[in-house]
Amino acid sequence: MSHGWSARLSCPTATRTQALCDGIRSRDRRCVISGTEAFGAHIYRWTGFEAAHIFPLAYEGSWNDHKHVRWTTIPLVKGRSISSVQNGLLLRSDVH
Fold first, then answer.
1. What Pfam families does the record tag this protein with (predicted)?
2. d(CA 48, CA 82)
3. Which tens digit of pLDDT belongs to each residue from 25-35?
4. Taking a C-beta distance cutoff of 8 angstroms, is the pair 93, 50 a contact?
């Protein structure tokens, strides 16, 4: 079935941890902008969806300088504090 967006997976890069992606997928289960459901989510198929950071990784220094981690209440993913699931959302690949 074609949905008109790319067939990229929701965690395509090594900079994103699997735990972060799993947390975002589990919480959102659909594109938070378009509302499109991840139809294969029940069998862990996330093609066409991407876990995205809200506050970009490129600005991690600013994230740390301004202590934005204080706004996260869910325990952080092992590693960088910017990779809290509260700093992420699930998007369709073409929306991201």
1. HNH_2
2. 24
3. 989 999 999 99
4. yes
pTM of the model: 0.73
Find out whether 89 and 24 touch, Cβ atoms under 8 Å.
yes
- Residue 11 CA to chain centroid, in angstroms? 8
Say how far apart CA 74 and CA 23 lie, in whole Å. 10
- Residue 5 near residue 92, CB atoms below 8 Å: yes
Structure token digits, residue 75: 């325990």
